[in-house]
Amino acid sequence: MVKHLPPVIKQLLTLRNPEAWPSPPIERLHGVFARTLNEAKRLNAETGWLVLTTCTLLTTNRPSAVGHLYRFATRADPGLADTRRNLEDAITRAAVMREAALKSVIFVGVPRVSRCLGQVDAKPQNIEATIERGMALWKSIYEPHAVKLYDKLGDLHPDFIAFIIQAYGTILSPLPRGQLEQGNLTRALGSVVAIATLRAEGRVGPQLTSHVFGLLKARYGKDLNEEDRYLSSDEGTEWVIRKIDEIVDAATADMQDNPTKGKL
Length: 264
Fold this sequence. Notes:
Helices cover 66% and strands 0% of the residues. By secondary structure, the chain is mainly α.
């Protein structure tokens, strides 16, 4: 059994920026949090705000900033633990953030998500039901091109499309018991996860466009709540993209190679 890394390999692993980016200055973070949350409250889209902010910060690889977001969202004064609003509200918000982070793994991979996500209990799943949920979500996002895209990805490797459908059914879909399960994200909020991660990641235009269409198509779902109706509207989808950009700009302003700001 290998118990220690050889010194040369250990040294190599310290090169090429192995650590996550540090959090931006708290004042800057709190400024963009307050500004965007106030807009979300006015639009009755607070859960959407929490989801897109979590996923955006996660994708920019700033795990400590996700902790600042949680404290901001659950305390009257983020710097003082005894100003937490109430335990039930804090647990609910934590559940939403954890579920959003878990769904992000499909788009940004395990390493970044694991830096931000606490332990998540695994639950056994019925594979047939999982695939059925995955196919239903696939069709709701990609129709009228769902079959063509399925076949195209299957041609790349048969296990690739099987993995995607199972991931959609297990992770990206709303939880099986819906709002009865703590931290459940609706169909529309699942699309917000996809847009936030892909927009913040950058250079994945076709995938981002597909999931923007996916959010717009969420308006045709059954039993939409008021927030989902707004987020899946043209205005709401535009708001989601603009708020992601605003948070990315605040989170990455300290990078030497700051990318050119994109405008819609």
